[in-house]
Amino acid sequence: MADSQWWPVIRRIIEEYGSEPMPDHVREDPFRVLIGCILSQRTKDETTDAAYRRLFSRYSGPEDLARADPSEIEKLIYPVGFYRNKARTIVKAAQFILEEFGGKVPDRFEDLLKIPGIGRKCANIVLAYAFGKPAIPVDTHVFRVAKRLGIAPEDAKPEDVEDALKRVVPREYWIPVNHALVRFGRAVCRPVRPRCESCPFTSVCKYYREHVASTSRSGGSSKG
Which residue numbers are catalytic? Predict the structure, then answer.
């Protein structure tokens, strides 16, 4: 499909899944959104939100966290994935923001990437959800859905998926597309055993065409 033909598909996903509540860790000020993104990596939203609330019930901002003992942070954020490494990263990020940006999280993509623990996904999350700037964060769900549908090629990297979505999605929809694709990826286009029988996009989906329909024609079954 041409890039322009994908927009009706994405628009429908935004309409059906974009209004679901946002997780706690992307709702507040830029510093907390940034720390929430560090916590969220390879961790479920429910676990991230609980750890996020515990952390910020004890520490209020970069000044407190820059002086914090990582072992104390570990206790507060456990059981998020890689909690020991994340505790050290949180302290380093807070120190860096104080030293380099005067305690204020920057609103430029290039500056955000300088902060310890912040890659493209987290930088875009901060831009989109903390500053309201058009950006498309690409996490594992967005990455999977875009490639399965065929919006991006199978060998695409996260930045390639980001570029592909930017070509498809009008700029005014860049912020909600991440949240909607994440929810769609969790509810329907799941990592294991995707619910293709419940998906309205099988007629255009590359994954369905190559892994489900072709298997059904040959008399087998697909397990995702």
Answer: 121, 139
